[in-house]
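Marked as duplicate of an earlier ticket. Keeping the data here for the record.
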Amino acid sequence: MSSIVDDVCDLLDSYNGRDKETTRAAAILGVVANMVDQAFLPVEKACWLYEVGVLKLSDKTAYKLETFSTMLWAASLLISLIQTSSSIRRLWWSRDCLQKASENGGADAKKHLDVRLILESIVAGKLCLDITHAISCLPEGWLWGEKIGSTKVAAIATTSSVIGIAMYFAKKRLLK
């Protein structure tokens, strides 16, 4: 029961600080992202409990729960991609404004923006790989669910993981 209360508190807290978002749409998208993530956690936990035999469900119910979990995962990734795309757009706008404001000055700021643009673009590409992976895990008939072979899906997931690890170290080194 305390876990449910914690989840509700986290959801209510998700709106805190949203008044600092650049637009109302960004604030709403942030709250929706938090709602999807908060819904995913207990559903995924229930799937795991079923898989290890602690939770008893009919096969049909377990199948629906697993499908719903995967849909929430894909939705969370899609929302993250939208947020990242918005961030890239703002960075481009900032870069253009900086270029117009000072033709010769601001080289360090421009370089920093360029690095952030590259990193955000790589994150967007990684999110596309993750979305492809998530939707490939959906049952047949759901977009391209089960249409990509398991070897290719594993290669997509591995590539995404390698990019994620490389991004961790790149951000530490490039954004000092």
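See parent ticket for discussion. The mean pLDDT is 85.
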